[in-house]
Structures are given as C-alpha cells and as structure tokens.
Amino acid sequence: MYLQWTGGEQDGTPDGPKLHSIPVDPCDARHLYIGMSSGGVFESVDGGSDWKPLNAGCRADFRPDKYTEYGQYPHCVQLHPLAPGILYQQNHCGIYRMERVAGSWTRICESMPKKIGDIGFPIVLHPRDPSTVWVFPMDGTSV
C-alpha cells in the first residue's frame, strides 16, 4: 500500500513518509484511522485488515492535482473522544475538520494571521468542547 498511498515516489521528508497518528474510535476499537505524511488520512472499520483513503476536500497544493485521492501531508490527526464522529488535522496545506458522516474535510483556518499561515504540526483538542481546538502554526518560510 505504501507505494500506492504515496504516489510511488519518495517525498521530501527525511527518510520518506511517516506514519504519525493512529486515532482509535472509543466506541469501536476496530474502527481506526491513520495519518501519514506524504500519504494522507486512511480509515479501517475492520481492525486494520482493509483501508480506504479519507482525503476528500483536503488540498495538496504541491501536486498537479490539488485534490488527489492520496499524497496529502497531514502532520497530526485527532479524533475527539466525546464526539468520535469529528476529526481534526493540521496539515502542510491547512487546518481541517471533518464530520465523519459528511466524508469530506473542511478547511477551518480563516482566522489565522496571513503572515503566519496555517501550516503546523500539533493540534490539541479541548477536553470538553469538540468544536474547539488549539494549533501551533509555523512560519513555513524557513526551516
């Protein structure tokens, strides 16, 4: 699956694509998500035997097809434990929220200062309010 999910190419990150997020649905331990830089977000409902991409609506500005099925760069994916139908990700191309029943990511970073942007790595969920998250964006103009 690695070659298919990453487009069959080596990405620009050191040592290649990284699996970094594994949210588990608190209501069903067989319902899993993974976030993989240079691949995207994927979902399994059978404990990891089968996976499907979950990247609709998430941009990949660095690819010829900006809404490709695979190849996005999520940096952190979170599933809110009080509302397991809500996922968040901070991505190389924005901050996104998904209501799982909708099946598509919505970019939610309009309030971020333009001089900073919305590229970042961590995303922290509010413990009691599934509609509130905290992010730490970075200025992507330098390493």
CATH fold description: Methylamine Dehydrogenase, Chain H
Gross CATH architecture: 7 Propeller
Question: What is the beta-strand fraction?
Answer: 25-35%
Question: What are the segments in which pLDDT stays under 50 over at least 5 consecutive residues?
Answer: none
Return the domain count.
Answer: 1
Number of strands: 10
What's the level 1 CATH class? Mainly Beta
Helical segment tally?
1
Rounded to an integer in angstroms, the radius of gyration calculated over CA atoms is 15 Å
The main pleated sheet reads as: 4 strands, antiparallel
CATH superfamily: YVTN repeat-like/Quinoprotein amine dehydrogenase
Helicity range: under 10%
Question: What is the N-to-C order of secondary-structure elements (H for helix, E for strand)?
Answer: HEEEEEEEEEE
Structural class label:
mainly beta
Structural notes for this entry:
By secondary structure, the chain is mainly β. The chain has a single domain, classed as Methylamine Dehydrogenase, Chain H (7 Propeller), CATH 2.130.10. Helix content is 3%, strand content 35%. The chain is built from one helix and ten strands. A hairpin with a 6-residue loop joins β7 and β8.
